[in-house]
Design brief:
This protein has 278 residues and is of the alpha/beta class. The protein has ten helices and 13 strands. It has helices at residues 36-46, 61-66, 77-88, 102-107, 110-113, 131-142, 203-208, 220-230, 248-260, 266-275, and strands at 5-9, 30-31, 34-35, 51-56, 90-95, 118-121, 125-128, 146-151, 161-169, 172-180, 191-199, 234-237, 241-244. A nine-stranded mixed beta sheet has the order 5-4-1-6-11-8-12-10-9. A two-stranded antiparallel ribbon has the order 2-3. A two-stranded antiparallel ribbon has the order 7-13. The structure holds uridine 5'-triphosphate. The site of uridine 5'-triphosphate (UTP) has 20 residues, from helix 4.
Length: 278
């Protein structure tokens, strides 16, 4: 079965981005010309996906407004590009009732996903080149769940979901186990889950069996851990760039690095950087 649907969770609090996120969703924070979530929807679109579910919640209405076709009398290139995409995709919204973690948010996608494999793309993370497109290629070969990972410095493993795995071909690993936010001693590797997944619909049953952690949050990694006992799962080592926009330093880096390549502002930013003495 082909991957035809994408789910984009965007209901988290965004406390690491306060006070920017006090009155606007973190997914609407700008990166050069566009809000973060527009990059994510574009990633789904350019991976061939036409049905997209965005999981929102309290304080996230700006996201729905952003994906209305614009009726402005005069539009810029980026708004026109988005309108063209909106002519071709179906975007659905569902609200997570309480912010009880990523695993809980994903549960809201069950009716939309039905019995198909789906791409799960975190709404606060952007990847270049498109990680979703590469993951779909891996899925098409192995026909089971596959999660994108990247190498992180060992002192940072406690910030991520980490996989224990063995390489089966270049950049593809069979997963033995997954651990959410391990200590350095407990970490089975430094391969961290980065926010892009292809999952089979069996994940929903597994999430329902997942117990909440301290603080009442249901972790997706815990659900995937159960899934891994029922079907083979693979990790794919993504070698492109990934920015977690929910983190201030990554957000600033994304703005600078993407601006450097931009036709409109690239030259100005290069000049600025050359002129700064650090
Ligand atoms: P984060 O781990 O970044 O959590 O979520 P957060 O609550 O959004 O941000 P902080 O930690 O308070 O700064 C990872 C992804 O999961 C979604 C977020 O929107 C983000 O895309 N998420 C998280 C939900 O949709 N619902 C939740 O209850 C938690």
């Amino acid at each position: 079965m082909k991957v035809k649907k994408a789910v984009i969770p965007a209901a988290g609090y965004g406390t690491r981005m306060l006070p920017i996120t006090k009155a606007q969703p973190k997914e609407m924070v700008p990166v050069v010309h566009k809000p973060v979530i527009q990059y994510v929807v574009e990633e789904a679109y350019y991976s061939g996906i036409r049905d997209i579910l965005i999981i929102t919640g309290k304080g996230k209405r700006a996201i729905e407004d952003h994906f209305d076709r614009s009726d402005l009398p005069k539009k810029d290139k980026y708004t026109e590009d988005l309108d063209k995409i909106l002519d071709e995709v179906n975007i659905f919204f569902v609200r997570q009732r309480e912010q009880k973690g990523l695993g809980d948010a994903v549960k809201y996608a069950e009716a939309f996903v039905d019995d198909e494999p789906f791409a799960l793309l975190l709404g606060d993370t952007i990847t270049f080149p498109s990680c979703a497109k590469e993951l779909i290629q891996v899925y098409n070969k192995y026909k089971t769940s596959v999660v994108a990972v990247e190498e992180v410095p060992i002192e940072k493993v406690s910030l991520y979901g980490i996989v224990k795995c063995r390489e089966v071909e270049e950049s593809v690993y069979l997963i033995d186990d997954l651990v959410e936010k391990p200590s350095i001693d407990e970490a089975p590797s430094n391969l961290a889950i980065l926010g892009r997944y292809i999952l089979t619909p069996e994940i929903f049953e597994c999430i329902k069996e997942t117990k909440p952690r301290k603080g009442g949050e249901i972790q997706l990694t815990d659900g995937m851990r159960i899934l891994n006992t029922r079907e083979r799962m693979y990790a794919y080592l993504f070698k492109g760039k990934r920015y977690d926009i929910g983190n201030k330093l990554d957000w600033l880096k994304a703005n600078i690095e993407l601006a450097l390549d931009d036709v409109e502002v690239g030259e100005g930013i290069r000049e600025l950087i050359r002129s700064i003495e650090v």
